[in-house]
Specification:
mainly alpha, single chain
């Protein structure tokens, strides 16, 4: 079990990421549907269309990221939490911008909406824990004086 609020945020993120990765690997059409993409049957795929390969790679990356996040949460590895928050915010920025630029389907906005708030909650939990730790240290020093 995670031992801190920030650990819980990372565990939830990790479980969701791993779940989406597994869904995409086992039932890619279901994942595409959830993201608002129209299923294109293999019969209609153009020569050289590598979409299934990229979907597999993306889903495997999500599964790995999810597993890493859960393991980091279980060990309460706060440095990892601090590293992921800004990059998750970057993802939150890039995906919607790609949609606005016409370079990605609207389903990618959901990725940004998932990543951004999650990263902010993790950052807020880390900040709260740091503040609480500073108060605890000050209280211990005052009690010792």
């Amino acid at each position: 079990m995670p031992r801190s609020p920030s650990g819980w945020t990372m565990a939830v993120f990790g479980i969701l990421a791993a779940t989406m990765g597994v869904v995409g690997l086992l039932a890619p059409d279901a994942l595409l549907t959830v993201m608002g993409f129209t299923r294109v049957g293999d019969v209609r795929r153009a020569e050289g269309d590598h979409t299934p390969v990229f979907l597999t790679a993306s889903c495997m990356a999500a599964l790995n990221m999810g597993a890493y996040s859960v393991l980091a949460a279980l060990s309460d590895w706060k440095a990892s939490f601090r590293w992921t928050a800004p990059f998750r915010l970057l993802t939150c920025t890039v995906f919607p911008l790609r949609v606005l630029a016409g370079r990605a389907r609207s389903g990618f906005v959901g990725v940004g909406l998932w990543e951004g708030p999650g990263a902010l909650v993790t950052a807020a939990a880390l900040h709260h824990e740091k503040q609480r730790g500073a108060r605890t240290d000050a209280d211990e020093r005052a009690a010792a004086a």
